[in-house]
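Entry for the shared binder. Reason: the reviewer on the internal report wants the predicted structure included alongside the sequence.
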Amino acid sequence: MSAQPAEELPEPLRGRVVLIAGAAGGLGAAAARACAAAGATVVLLGRKVAKLNRVYDSVARSGPEPLLYPLDLEGAVPDDYAALAGRLQTELGRLDGVLHCAAEFAGLTPFEQGDPAAFARAIHINLTARAWLTQACLPLLRQRDDAAVVFALDDLQRVGQAYWGGYGVAQHGLRGLLESLQHELVNSPVRVCGVQPGPMRTGLRARAFVDDEDMSAADPAAYAAACVNLLAPAGAAWRGRVRDLTA
């Protein structure tokens, strides 16, 4: 009897270690539970400890015991990410995937009236911090035969319009980062891709849309399976590409 395709395996992430940045948020928490149910040991990274603890409990019920790693991406420096990678090497001995879900969005504001510090903070958390975290994790990821870096992305047609400020600019930058990393890592065991969920009922989206005007938004859990797929061996089909779930 032939082996099952990777995407059909009941636990496609069994034995893998997956780091989820922004694990206390809507998509991050949903993806963490789905990854655990798929067999992964999940590292929960975020700044809100109380929320992380609640996610920790639900993830622990879904699969292997997770690892909690509180870290504020706004204030973290490259040495902090290096320390994180060192702890993963020491305590878990491996890293097979990174899912970037952490995001910062203060709300829709005309550029002329915007707070320069808020603009810089949005660029840093949504782009620079993701780049620094990825850079620190690459040596660990390269040790695996198959590893993945997955960026959760927003719809450029939407966030490229008026008032999205630093968040919108960072989203454009993330596409450039993804493409650059794809060219650098094309012959390595580390694959880079993106996932673009459809509208989700999250705190971030609530800052831009009124509930009764946003009936299309879905629970973030609707997109968790796609995150698992991209982190699993089957995700190799999306190497260097963005999986658009808005259609």
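Summary line for the report: The first helix runs from residue 26 to 37.
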